[in-house]
């Protein structure tokens, strides 16, 4: 665990003309993690990923990655007129670290015909070719922008499985953005929540789940409880409320019940409350 | 990168080479037949009717080579694929513009040499004048490759700045035609013309005739002429203007590429 973070951003910001797409973004992604970057549309996810891979240069702050980085852009662009073989040749000629045997083995194992033009392949097959292109560079960090968008459930599963196999084989670090939460729970172990151009949450998913509870009880006691624990989100009726709180197991009054939260509840709670934040040290408390 | 450039643009390369070969063959056959023709003027005119349209050939270079070079990448998002490999964006652009620009210049130069050789086949036809004829001037010498390169640079810059192929094509055509019309007018003033006195018996002097001299009764008594020996001076002037404009446009292209996420 003494490894340097594979990706580290400090005070990172990007401004387009007058509007900040990303502001005050600080996060560190430890080696070997599979990190999910989630947030509503326009939260700055793509901007953050483009900064991470060097397609954009920051307006303020720094972003640094150790080792080689591969990137799968949104919509998984490929040269449509290139055959699969030519696409692999493109990767080989443009990358000194290219592993040609791995690339061809992977394509063969997936049953992709080498002489088929990329434009004629299905969405799932195109995603696999794009993923092969990224993986065969043998990167230390693979960044994927919405890799599962526009894929049917089967193809989503296949792409994620391919990604997980590569992670298991090589200890690759992955950062992927997505808005399909259900695909992330089984595969990702790190969560970054981006909202309105700011990082709200960055941390280990198991620790985050363990560190939050959903507390349900009578509304009149809620304020007293809220003084004892850090409440992320509050919902419910006039009589009964649910508090999603940042806390471990705590003693509660007899009228209160508590249960663990799932990942989706956790993310939604933070997204509903842009002022709340759960960040590792140094904790950036948002005013 | 060189394989990549060839692979992405081989259709344009092959089609352009084929078109050049066809034009060359037509000019060659016509030129060979000219020596045996009863009236070389007719033989010349038969081709000139079509050839005189080809100063606009660089528009095709701009549209088919230039505009898609960057706009097609931006439209499909493939620039993000290309720019996140281990080749820097600057090198990617330099190799593409360098190799394709060289190919365009060579093609334009070959075209110019073919037109020149064809003109040389008509030593007795007065209209076969590479200096006095507005179209032939643009299609010979160093002006020919310069015009082709300029067309390529306009198309590339339009594609880079507008990021979409179709609007870039429209803008390329408009800008090219405006510059062509402008330079065709400006060309007469690359140097101060010489005044030549003529009467009914004298032969019209060779060169670029840019005006007439009138006496008090509005009778033509002379011509304002750019003498034929100024051909190369004018060629280099025109090529210089076009290449400077192409360099500026390429600079704009480079800035647009550097800023594009």
From TrEMBL, chain A:
PROSITE patterns named in the record: ABC_TRANSPORTER_2 (PS50893)
Keywords assigned by UniProt, alphabetized: ATP-binding, Nucleotide-binding, Transport
One Pfam family named in its UniProt record: ABC_tran
Keyword Transport attributed: yes
Gene Ontology molecular function: any one: ATP hydrolysis activity
Domain ABC transporter: 7-221
CDD domains, A to Z: ABC_DR_subfamily_A
PANTHER family associated with the record: ABC TRANSPORTER ATP-BINDING PROTEIN ALBC-RELATED (PTHR42939)
Entry protein name: ABC transporter ATP-binding protein
Natural source organism: Actinokineospora fastidiosa
Lineage of the organism: Bacteria, Bacillati, Actinomycetota, Actinomycetes, Pseudonocardiales
TrEMBL record, chain B:
Superkingdom classification of source: Bacteria
Assigned keywords, A-Z: Membrane, Transmembrane, Transmembrane helix
Presence of keyword Transmembrane helix: yes
Transmembrane feature ranges: 50-72, 93-114, 134-154, 166-186, 239-257
This protein's name: ABC transporter permease
Originating organism: Actinokineospora fastidiosa
């Amino acid at each position: 665990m003494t490894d340097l973070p594979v990706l580290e951003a400090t005070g990172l910001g990007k401004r387009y003309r007058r509007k900040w797409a990303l502001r005050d973004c600080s996060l560190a992604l430890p080696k070997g993690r599979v990190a999910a970057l989630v947030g509503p549309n326009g939260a700055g996810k793509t901007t953050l990923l483009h900064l991470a891979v060097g397609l954009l240069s920051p307006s303020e702050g720094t972003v640094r990655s150790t080792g080689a980085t591969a990137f799968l852009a949104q919509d998984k662009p490929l040269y449509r007129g290139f055959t699969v073989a030519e696409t692999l040749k493109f990767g080989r000629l443009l990358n000194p670290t290219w592993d040609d045997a791995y690339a061809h083995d992977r394509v063969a194992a997936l049953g992709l015909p080498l002489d088929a033009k990329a434009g004629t392949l299905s969405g799932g097959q195109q995603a696999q070719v794009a993923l092969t292109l990224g993986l065969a560079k043998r990167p230390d960090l693979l960044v994927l922008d919405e890799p599962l968008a526009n894929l049917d459930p089967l193809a989503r599963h296949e792409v994620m499985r391919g990604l997980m196999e590569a992670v298991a084989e090589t200890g690759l670090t992955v950062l992927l953005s997505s808005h399909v939460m259900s695909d992330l729970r089984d595969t990702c172990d790190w969560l970054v929540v981006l909202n309105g151009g700011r990082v709200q949450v960055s941390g280990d998913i198991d620790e985050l789940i363990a560190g939050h509870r959903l507390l349900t009880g009578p509304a009149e006691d809620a304020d007293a409880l809220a003084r004892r624990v850090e409440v992320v989100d509050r919902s419910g009726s006039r009589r009964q409320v649910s508090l999603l709180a940042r806390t471990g197991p705590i003693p509660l009054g007899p009228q209160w019940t508590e249960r663990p939260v799932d990942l989706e509840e956790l993310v939604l709670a933070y997204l509903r409350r842009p002022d709340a934040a759960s960040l590792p040290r140094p904790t950036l408390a948002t005013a | 990168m060189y394989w990549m450039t060839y692979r992405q643009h081989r259709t344009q390369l092959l089609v352009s080479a084929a078109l050049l070969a066809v034009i060359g063959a037509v000019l060659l056959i016509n030129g060979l037949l000219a020596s045996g023709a009863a009236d070389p003027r007719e033989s010349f005119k038969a081709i000139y009717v079509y050839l005189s349209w080809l100063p606009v050939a660089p528009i095709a270079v701009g549209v088919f080579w230039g505009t898609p070079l960057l706009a097609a990448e931006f439209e499909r998002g493939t620039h993000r694929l290309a720019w996140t490999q281990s080749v820097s964006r600057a090198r990617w652009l330099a190799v593409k513009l360098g190799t394709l620009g060289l190919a365009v210049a060579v093609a334009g130069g070959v075209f110019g040499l073919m037109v020149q050789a064809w003109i040389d086949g008509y030593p007795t036809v007065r209209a076969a004048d590479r200096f006095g004829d507005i179209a032939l001037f643009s299609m010979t010498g160093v002006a020919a490759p310069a015009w082709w390169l300029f067309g390529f640079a306009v198309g590339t810059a339009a594609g880079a700045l507008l990021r979409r192929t179709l609007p870039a094509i429209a803008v390329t055509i408009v800008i090219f035609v405006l510059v062509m019309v402008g330079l065709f007018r400006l060309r007469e003033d690359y140097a101060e013309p010489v005044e030549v006195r003529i009467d009914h018996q004298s032969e019209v002097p060779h060169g670029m005739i840019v005006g007439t001299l009138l006496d008090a009764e509005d009778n033509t008594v002379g011509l304002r002429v750019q003498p034929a020996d100024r051909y190369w001076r004018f060629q280099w002037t025109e090529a210089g203007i076009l290449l400077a404009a192409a360099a500026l446009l390429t600079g704009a292209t480079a800035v647009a590429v550097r800023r594009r996420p």
